[in-house]
Write a structure and sequence with these properties.
The chain has three domains: 61 residues, LysM domain (Membrane-bound Lytic Murein Transglycosylase D, Chain A); 63 residues; 57 residues, Muramoyl-pentapeptide Carboxypeptidase, domain 1 (Orthogonal Bundle). Helices cover 24% and strands 22% of the residues. It contains six helices and ten strands; from the N terminus they run E-E-H-H-H-E-E-E-E-E-E-E-E-H-H-H. The strands form four sheets. The chain has a four-stranded antiparallel sheet, with no helix packed on it. Strands 1-4 form a two-stranded antiparallel sheet. A hairpin with a 2-residue loop joins strand 9 and strand 10. The radius of gyration is 20 Å and the shape is flat.
Length: 217
């Protein structure tokens, strides 16, 4: 049996890995590198950052089928896409929380590990995981996986992307709504002041670059 080529419209919170799982692909790269997704690759050079409304062409592919005898127990191993959770955690003084044990609770499973020398926490989780709770030191941090938007070529001029990064860095821009309101401007001014930028409250190119550099993506 063969699944036909399809077009998928990205929804908030989706990433290539979760889309691959939805359509039965083990490797999300097979979708991203599909010839008809050349425009998507130009628009989104980072395959981990998609924007709601983006169109992903899903290639036609064979669906696997099995014929098994009845009356017996069978063990089937299925390879499913996984997504990587990678977060750099800073303390109240903006110092890396390095070499500390952590727990990542996805609801179905708790993953344990230790942050590295830069305060980075990294784990691989199933593609369907959309939320997790990270506990490290005296912090408990809720995570929304796949919800970070790209900054460029978006309908909201990248404002929701900047708001999410400001929030992740502790600058409290208010609700992530894609609107450059008073709280977001105040958060931008605090960020600009901390990074020796012109304190304007505007999402100018220099501020955007500094914010992307500080956030890491």
């Amino acid at each position: 049996m063969r699944s036909p080529e399809q077009k998928h419209t990205v929804q908030q919170g989706e990433c290539l890995v979760s889309i691959a799982k939805m359509y039965g692909f083990e490797d999300a790269g097979e979708i991203y590198q599909y010839a008809k997704n050349a425009d998507l690759r130009r628009l989104r050079p980072n395959p981990n950052l998609l924007y709601p409304g983006d169109t992903v062409v899903i290639p036609a592919h064979d669906l696997k089928s099995f014929t098994l005898p009845t009356g017996k127990h069978h063990k089937l191993v299925v390879n499913v896409p996984k997504r990587k959770v990678r977060v750099r955690v800073l303390d109240a003084n903006r110092e890396p929380m390095k070499n500390l044990p952590f727990k990542l609770d996805t609801g179905a499973r708790v993953y344990e590990g230790q942050s590295d020398g830069d305060g980075v926490v990294e784990k691989t989780v199933p593609a369907e995981v959309e939320q997790a709770m990270l506990s490290i030191g005296d912090l408990t941090i809720p995570l929304l996986l796949g919800h970070l938007n790209p900054c460029d070529d978006t309908e909201d001029d990248g404002i929701s992307a900047l708001q999410a990064r400001l929030k992740n860095l502790g600058y409290q821009p208010g609700r992530i709504d894609g609107c450059l309101g008073p709280r977001t401007r105040a958060a931008l001014r605090r960020f600009q002041s901390d990074h020796n930028l012109d304190v304007t409250g505007e999402a100018d190119d220099a501020t955007k670059k500094a914010l992307l550099d500080d956030h890491g993506c």
